[in-house]
Amino acid sequence: MQADGSIAAGLGGYSINLGQFSAAAVDRAGHLTSGLPLASFAGKGVLARQVHALVRRLAGHGLLEYRLCSPRDEQDLVVIEPQVAEYWPQRAKLGSGDTIVLSRFAYLRRRDSEMVLESPRAGALFRIFDPAIAATLAALSRPQKISELRRHAASANLDLLGLLLDSKMLIRLNAKDGDGLRVNEGDGNLVLWDFHDLVFHTRSTEGRHTNPVGGAFTHAGVVPPLPAVRPPWPGKKIDLGKFSTSGSVSHFAKLLRERHSIRDFDDQHPVTLAELAQFLDTTARVLSEWKIGADFDGGPEVTYSARPYPSAGGAYELELYLAVLNCGELARGLYHYDAGSHALVAIDTSAQQLQALSTAAEFAMDASGPPQVLITIAARFGRISWKYSSIAYSLILKDVGNLIQTFYLTATDMGLGGCAIGTCNIDLFAKMTGLEFHVEGPVGQFALGRGRKPAPSS
Ligand SMILES: Cc1cc2nc3c(=O)[nH]c(=O)nc-3n(C[C@H](O)[C@H](O)[C@H](O)COP(=O)(O)O)c2cc1C
């Protein structure tokens, strides 16, 4: 807090400017380190509005936690830790006649020395400090009428239950929901998700959690790095070198040797639309389509397609979204590749979102500039989980691997270059496309372009 009323938040060497405020608001903001009741800035006065604006800005950067404490002794009962930037605590209204149950995606676990309630659907996690609340959560593995629940569990605080319901840790049941353990949770697209798959998807991408992502070397001080090549088994060695053919090396073998990642691109000579068309035609185009009758008694007819790369179960659940940043005749923007008709379809997105996508890729590659085309590989999750239980998400990631190698080899063959990117922000993609994160979302990225020629050595 500066004397001129400006406030900035500093964390891990970064500083975030939060704006200019009156002396009274700066004074009030000082209380945020120990806690400021939400009600204290809910009013319409100038001071309340200023504090509200500041707090919203802090929340937007994920810098606030929300404490729920015991009115008796001020001890923390629960602390809410936001996982998405938009999270703001809201209490869903609950009446004593309502019936609620724990979401099948919610789970309690130990994190360091705390018990946390998490869910891939929730925008926040709840740190549980009172064991009685954990007991109430356990009771909520079966549908409970609020009036009944409160009779048996004093800790069933309506404020907390309302917060849990709002964040989708709990679901409210209607009379027609039968035993209440329905798998759709009010959203038909969730039927197709196994618990572990949705947790894996949201925790191994960016956008819906606040854990470290990527090369953070978290275990560097604890465990030495493993060697690049596995130490050999002690058994008898059969030297394969003497069996290798000495004849000419095939074009394909050369391509495999030549392939390497290219992270810096020649901005003066961007990839052309014709090259992009050829790249997509070679790697991802639908080659044929057909239908197959029921796989099992009473099952429906299923449509299939053939494409240049292999795909688990022939599902071809992967879709390509191209962020075009610098490509000859093609306007900057986001496009979907319609693999069936070999066409690009423009998607309306904001320039800032496109920039955020490009900057994240540049950062992930430690590159000197943006890629010319950034391909986001998204999955239509239901296409594969409709058939496969337990292995659906892992099959998707294996398919991504196939496609990425196909991209690398095709780019090399065409004299272009590219680089796989291990992270992607599922929240940003959802905002850019309007697609819900559990319906169709990113599972891989590939930066494509014409590689920059190395500077001639003097
Ligand atoms: C799944 C996958 C994810 C990758 N993620 C990144 C990444 O985020 N940033 C990056 O600079 N390189 C990334 N790479 C590229 C690897 O660093 C690169 O393939 C590896 O160092 C071998 O080098 P080469 O591709 O030039 O042979 C990724 C590669 C793969 C296959």
UniProtKB/TrEMBL annotation:
Residue span(s) of domain Nitroreductase: 256-450
Pfam family, one: Nitroreductase
Gene3D superfamilies with a match to the protein in the record: NADH Oxidase (3.40.109.10)
InterPro entries in the record: Nitroreductase, Nitroreductase-like, Nitroreductase/BluB, SagB-type_dehydrogenase, ThcOx_dom2
Domain called Cyanobactin oxidase ThcOx second: residue spans: 100-209
PANTHER family per the UniProt record, alphabetical: NAD(P)H NITROREDUCTASE RV3131-RELATED, NADPH NITROREDUCTASE
Name of protein: SagB family peptide dehydrogenase
